[in-house]
Amino acid sequence: MLTIGCHLSCSKGYANMAREAASLGGTTFQFFTRNPRGGKAKALDPHDLEAFAALAADAGIERILAHAPYTLNPASSKEQTREFALMTLADDLARMEEATPGQLYNMHPGSHVGQGVEVGIEQIAEALNAVLKPDMTTTLLLETMAGKGSEIGGTFEELAAIIERVNHDEHVGVCLDTCHIWDGGYDIVEDLDGVLEEFDRIIGLDRLRAIHLNDSLNVRASHKDRHARIGEGHIGFEALSAITNHPKLAHLPFYLETPQDELSGYAEEIAALRAAYAPVLS
Ligand code: FE
Ligand code: FE
Ligand code: ZN
What are the pLDDT digits (tens) for 136-179? Predict the structure, then answer.
């Protein structure tokens, strides 16, 4: 069975997200841990979490992916910004342990804002070393980025360099965003096997824990990061379906972050990808 879902709003709580995911044909979902621009997270509600557990079990939802606010920047040149990132990461991870242990937490590595890639990588690793605890059950994922502006994580080498510097790297994985790596220059349309071999050689495929499945409005290596609906961009339905069906990827959870007017748009994409799912697993 294809584990697929989409990004949902967390504003009405966990139980509501499980209900929404199931109504769209999803067996997983992604959500922001708090307002995506930062700010305080809502207090956890034990009744909501109890209802969520029951609804998730009914809907076959075993895996969920929390996403850190995208404004966090542990590689900022400003100490105050780095400290805010640290506080937010620590708070999010503590909430994950309390509310949904054993799940996935995804973050954008950060932008070096002119300090240089080397400094940025050191600062991101430093932040991770401050927040990762040896006994945690959550896996923190670094997202592959499009390399827009001074973003770190636009190449597999940069993500590997961060992970290499993390002490408790057993709690670190990678979330591959198809729009981002396409915009970053990786040819997942003509040479998916080659890209996966490169990922395996540089990061290790065992680190790959989730996929953001998005089409791209732009041509390869544009470094733009503008998502398109599945089949309406330069990657195309066939190439994206080849990703869900790839024997090395088919077991992973997939998340749609495609632009939609209505949630029903996600339901259509989920149904189309499910209909095309028939991986040949050895
Ligand atoms: Fe993201
Ligand atoms: Fe993404
Ligand atoms: Zn993006």
Answer: 999 999 999 999 999 999 999 999 999 999 999 999 999 999 99
Q: Is 58 a catalytic residue?
A: no
Burial (CB < 10 A; 0-12, 13-18, 19+), residue 37, is exposed
Q: Which ligand is nearest to the CA of 226?
A: 3
Task: For residue 143, indicate whether it is catalytic.
Answer: yes
Q: What domains, with CATH codes, occur in the chain?
A: 61-251 (3.20.20.150)
Q: Which amino acid is at 172?
A: V
Give the per-residue pLDDT at 35: 83
Rounded-to-integer distance, Cα 80 and Cα 87, Å: 11
Tell me the CA–centroid distance for residue 21 and ligand 1, in Å: 19
User: Annotated catalytic, 7?
Assistant: no
Local confidence band at 281 (pLDDT 50, 70, 90 cut-offs): confident
Task: Report phi then psi at 123, rounded to 5.
Answer: -70, -40
- What's the gap in Å between 46 CA and the centre of ligand 1? 28
Indicate which residue of 70, 98, 170, 201 is catalytic.
70
Is 54 in a helix, a strand, or coil?
A: helix
Q: Strand (E) positions, 68-190?
A: 104-107, 110-111, 139-143, 151-152, 172-177
What long-range pairs does 116-124 form, CB within 8 A, spacing at least 24?
A: 117/152, 117/158, 119/75, 120/75, 120/150, 120/152, 121/75, 121/152, 121/158, 121/161, 121/162, 121/165, 122/165, 123/74, 123/75, 123/76, 123/82, 124/74, 124/75, 124/152, 124/162
180 given a catalytic annotation:
yes
The residue among 106, 143, 146, 109 whose CA lies nearest residue 126 is: 109
What is the number of the ligand closest to the CA of 227?
A: 3
